[in-house]
Amino acid sequence: MEYSRTSEEAPRRATVAGVGTPEHDGHEGTRHRVTRSIVDHGPSTAADLAERLELTPAGVRRHLDALVAEGVVEATEQRVYGRRGRGRPAKVFALTDVGRSGFHQEYDELAAEALRFVAEQLGTEAVAKFARERLAAREERYRPSVESAPPGERARALAEALSADGYAASARPAPGGEQLCQHHCPVAHVAERFPQLCEAEAEVFARLLGTHVQRLATIAHGDGVCTTHVPAVQAESAGSTTGRRTGSPGPQNTDMNPPRRGPSRSRESTDATPASGRTTS
Predict the structure, then answer these.
(1) SS (H, E, C) 143-189
(2) Residues 6+ apart with CB under 8 A from 9
(3) Rounded CA separation 98/78 (Å)
(4) Residue 160, CB half-sphere, CA atoms under 13 Å: how many?
(5) Residue 277, Cβ neighbours under 10 Å: how many?
(6) Residue 142 and residue 132: Cα distance in Å, rounded?
(7) Is 49 helix (H, G, I), strand (E, B) or coil?
(8) What CA–CA distance (Å, rounded) separates 230 from 246?
(9) Which pLDDT band holds residue 233 (cuts at 50, 70, 90)?
(10) pTM to 2 decimals?
(11) Do 279 and 257 contact (CB within 8 A), yes or no?
């Protein structure tokens, strides 16, 4: 696996072979499957990857070693809750910025420059308005599938809709409710500079689910997964509130900068990266 060489024919931006474009043979094809699995499922152990990809653990470790050497993935120790057994905790592998860049949409820099111009000329509120308008059509597209789901299944229905748009999302039970996890964010590089994109998305989730939501982590701020907490009580009674239209007053997240540590964070979101003291948008 090699970075593309600079030449008259090569693009100025280096690409990681086997990350953005799948090859179906040789080591690069397998390494693309490994990185794709991490995107779809979040930070993973070698044993998890071997099981999902039907490969031997030894074979997966060889590919992970190569990806670590290339700077595509990084390894951290898996957090253990409760009593720890003998031996060292398993290593968890997550994509680095280099690895994630192979899955990003094109023209990230152009989009960031355009939003910077808007902010300079019209103010940051104009960026927030743009972010809300950008998500309005998607909100209305998601609404039928979310509203038609039983109250207890609406977070899962939203996750399926997000996955269809490339966010590799999932929903799972968590203390006090559910966690909506997005393992991939096509606009993470832009959202890192303009948190209004994340804030507008959280507002959409709140309206669709009929409850306030709390953002616990975002890829844009260096976490392995975008994680949103959906409270249990309100989620179960969402049937009477999900009919709000875009732009109508509705429950919104009032705490966009929650503590990075807390009992409501699932193992998946806390395993992604160690707490760094940063706050999320």
Answers:
(1) HHHHHHCCHHHHHHHHHHHHHHCCCCEEEEEECCEEEEEECCCCCHH
(2) none
(3) 22
(4) 10
(5) 6
(6) 15
(7) helix
(8) 19
(9) low
(10) 0.53
(11) yes
Q: Return the ∠ at Cα 277 (arms to 274 and 281), rounded to 5°.
A: 100
Length of the chain in terms of residues written: 281
- pLDDT tens, position by position, 101-116: 766 545 678 888 899 9
Residue 131 CB partners (closer than 8 Å, separation 6+): 194, 196, 197, 199, 200, 201
Position of tokens 């060889």? 62
pLDDT per residue over 38-68, tens digit each? 888 888 999 999 999 999 999 999 999 999 9
Looking at residue 125, what is its pLDDT? 95
- In this model, does residue 203 exceed pLDDT 80? yes
Q: What is the pLDDT of residue 132?
A: 96
By 3-state DSSP, what share of the chain in percent is helix, strand and coil, each rounded to 5? 45, 10, 40
Query: Rounded to an integer, what distance in angstroms lies between the CA atom of residue 167 and that of residue 42?
Result: 11
Q: Interior CA angle at 200 toward 123 and 238, to 5°?
A: 150
Q: Residue 88's pLDDT is what?
A: 64
Main-chain phi, psi angles of 182, to 5 degrees? -115, 115
